[in-house]
Design goal:
The chain is an alpha+beta fold. About 65% of the residues lie in helices and about 10% in strands.
């Protein structure tokens, strides 16, 4: 039994180290962490439950409590602090380990009975005649049953742990205390049921150990079924929680996008009014200045020359009332003008070759959302650079497709999210930041399009971030 237990300790140590590494961040090198974690976990398990247990007998509840305590201590040593996730990883692993153990024990018992019948048949047929042959055959059968049971244990536990890991999509999500309780409760329930099953499976009366499998054969069917259902409940609970988190995040993102659009609409409407007033004022001023210039030209004295210079300065001032870019739509004009001013304040070169697609049925506010978010991210990314700071905006059409390309240099390392393939924000509060690129994709998806991100190195060895947004808009029939 010690050898069988040793194999289980080895399997638990290997699979446990891999499973924990999927959820927690290493303090040290990943390979070294796995090796040392496995060795430390195996040694502590073997010493406590195979050596110390011979002197001080631990009951089932004490064994599990010690296991949980040891796991939490080892995780704290090798992984960064994350209390709620540490607890979830520990309890989900313990629940899986305990439940799969009963599945393996039933399989081991069934194989043992079958192989025992084979040995008995060989003895009755006279093919095994001596006690030595019977002992050898029994040991071989026991070894075969142990190997098959260990392989089955490792396979089922690995499948369970990988399914939990696969369904736990939002690993960067910071769990609240009540959320952690929701995730851990099924595992705690499973552990309690496993302790109860141990009491039912093995009983001792008058010094005689009785195994329920031999008394009630049907338990060899129902116990594995119960264990599989409990494992499935833990996995389903993780998936349900992740779906709730994703649904909540989607609602928050959609709400923020709607608020952003509403706010932009208000701002644009206000600026459009100012823009119209400026055009009228500019037209009137040009007329007044033109009349004054005709009047001044009739005279040629010194005072009129000074007045002439003053009027020329007024003309230049009036010309500056126009936005620098005429893209074909006031919304995009306003956004580009605003972002150009922001870029100039931080010393970023701003190049623009953008034209609004008047012939396509694409809402100007959606393009406004795209430009606002993309240019804001681009300016923010290249601002920390000491040289070669630039942002370029370019657009073109191909049939019904409208393409917007934004390119900028950047300095910080970019980490892509495994879930959505988009860059993660480097800011601490990921719930409030990092929404820009997702809003851009939403707008693109609205027009059956998408975004494409490419990172290159320029000739001056600066990293260049290129974002391409593709929108499919129907042609407007005139």
């Amino acid at each position: 039994m010690i050898n069988f237990s040793a194999f289980l300790y080895i399997i638990n140590s290997i699979l446990g180290s891999v499973y924990v590494g999927k959820f927690l961040k290493n303090k040290y090198d990943k390979r070294i962490t796995i090796i040392v974690w496995c060795l430390l976990h195996f040694i502590t398990q073997f010493v406590l439950f195979e050596v110390v247990q011979e002197i001080y007998v631990f009951n089932d509840l004490t064994q599990i409590s010690i296991n949980i305590f040891l796991l939490l201590i080892i995780q704290k040593i090798f992984y960064h602090k994350d209390r709620t996730r540490h607890v979830f990883v520990c309890f989900s692993f313990m629940a899986g380990k305990e439940l799969v153990k009963y599945i393996a024990s039933v399989l081991n018992n069934m194989i043992g009975i079958s192989l025992g019948n084979v040995v008995y048949k060989l003895v009755m047929e006279g093919k095994i005649a001596t006690e030595t042959d019977v002992e050898v055959a029994t040991n071989i059968m026991f070894l075969i049953a142990m190997v098959i049971s260990c392989c089955a244990y490792a396979l089922v536990l690995w499948v369970y742990l990988m399914l939990v890991n696969k369904n736990y999509v939002r690993k960067e999500y910071v769990l609240q205390t009540h959320e952690s309780g929701f995730l851990i409760l099924p595992s705690i329930t499973a552990i309690c049921i496993s302790i109860t099953m141990k009491m039912l499976v093995v009983s001792v009366e008058d010094g005689i150990t009785t195994i329920v499998y031999n008394v009630v054969p049907y338990t060899m069917f129902w116990i594995p079924i119960i264990c599989v259902l409990l494992l499935g409940a833990i996995i389903a609970n993780v998936k349900l929680f992740q779906n709730v988190v994703q649904y909540h995040d989607e609602n928050v993102k959609n709400s923020l996008l709607e608020n952003q659009i509403i706010q932009m609409q208000k701002e644009v409407e206000e600026i459009q009014d100012i823009y119209s007033d400026m055009h009228g004022l500019k037209h009137d001023l040009r007329g007044h200045i033109s009349n004054i210039m005709h009047y001044v030209k009739k005279f040629d004295d010194k005072e009129n020359k000074e007045l002439h210079n003053y009027i020329n300065n007024m003309v230049e001032t009036v010309e500056r009332l126009d936005f620098g870019y005429q893209s074909g739509n006031p919304i995009t004009d306003i956004i580009i003008h605003q972002k150009k001013q922001e870029a100039q304040k931080v010393g970023v070169r701003f190049d623009v070759d953008f034209n609004y697609p008047k012939k396509l049925q694409i809402n100007a506010y959606d393009i406004g959302i795209i430009l606002n978010n993309a240019l804001e991210n681009a300016i923010e990314a290249c601002s920390p650079l000491k040289e070669n700071k630039y942002v370029s905006l370019y657009s073109y059409m191909k049939g019904n497709m409208f393409f917007v390309e934004i390119e900028n240099t950047f300095q910080k390392e970019i980490i892509f999210n495994m879930e959505n393939g988009l860059p993660d924000t480097s800011k601490e509060n990921k719930k409030l930041h990092g929404m820009g690129i997702q809003n851009i994709r939403r707008c693109a998806k609205k027009y059956n399009g998408d975004i494409d991100i490419v990172i290159n190195t320029s000739e001056s060895n600066h990293k260049v971030f290129s974002l391409t947004i593709m929108l499919n808009g129907k042609n407007i029939r005139v």
